[in-house]
Amino acid sequence: MCSTDCATPVACLAGVLEALAGEDLKGSFGPAVIERTGSLLVARNRLDAVLARTVREGELTQAAEHDGKASMSSWLRGHHRLSQGEASRLVRNGRVLEQLPALAAAAVAGAVTAEAVSTIAPVAAAENLARADEQGVDVPAVDAALATVAATRAHSELRQVVGHYLARLDPDGTEPDPTENRSFATARDSHGMVTGRFVLDEIGGEKLLAAVESIVQANRPAGDVRTRSQQQADALVQLCDNALASGDLPTMRTVKPHVVVTIDLEDLMDTSTGEGAGRTGFGGIISAAEARWLACGGNVTRIVIGPEGQPLDLGRSTRLFPPHLRRAVEVRDRHCVFAGCDAPSHWCDVHHLVHWIDDGNTDLDNSALLCERHHTKVHHGFRVERQPNGRWRTRRPDGTEIVVHEPFLVPA
């Protein structure tokens, strides 16, 4: 018990957390903030360990039945709104700490994170403990070694150590199918952003990382202030653009895969932002400005809708820039014309300098190559202009020019 005469340790914890939440951090000096952060991380590790052990006790005593739930996992999801994955991880960690006492001691001391316990979990699986027993493996020694690695080494190294141990434990086992545990799930949040989670095996992950990194390294324009995460997200979208533009993807019900947007003609022609004006093929809601951006380099099909919502007339699809004109633009511009960017032509869309919806011509003089990222920028206030001498200039939304300084050359 603490000095405040709390009824239970949990009540003491609630009081301490309330006091911590009420502290004013604005005047904290840097080293004090670092020290506080470290102490809180250790406390969180300890609390995670105690929670996992408590959940395990609930599992052993069937405590969830008290609230009419079949398992602790379902109780955690239903009563505390944990995700399926988090609830399963918590239950699994409780079982692991019961099987590996050295790891449990390190976790309770705050030296090992819940993520590390989850990484070590396969070691304590029933089939792997049985294999270890058959081969005379000193499991307590393995437990102690893994606890030390988890407490003192980088998490990536812990994953490698666990993988190496499991591989040595079953050296003659069948080679697992690397695709069996792959998963990819997406969802759309309240703002229309697509979020998701994917799990790839070592080879599949290496392919993804190699492809994304190639685009990240090839697209490093001057003055780039994007975070690493933003660069990789842009690279992933660029990969999709390249694949869709190649025409080599499998057909979807006799039609090549493409981005579909439905929008009223009045909204498309409106120069305002027009929030929520268009709907994508996968259920997203986009603005009229975003629809104009997508229409810049795609196909547009006119469909006349009757008063009761029935299609009355389907006009022919119109390709805004035909192949021969695109080739001419590529020969002239060679790469993205946005200042400081040299993204290759096959990454780029052909952009109308004066939008076709505003009666801009689809010709060489009214065109510019722009990569996906800078095409977006141009449709959000930036502007590119081609001078009579063929030089491109890029202007910010406030009208100032983005100037890329030439490297200083030492006279010979």
From TrEMBL:
Taxonomy of the source species: Bacteria, Bacillati, Actinomycetota, Actinomycetes, Geodermatophilales
Species whose genome carries this gene: Blastococcus aurantiacus
CDD domains linked: HNHc
Domain HNH nuclease: 324-376
Protein name: HNH nuclease domain-containing protein
InterPro entries: DUF222 (IPR003870), HNH_nuc (IPR003615)
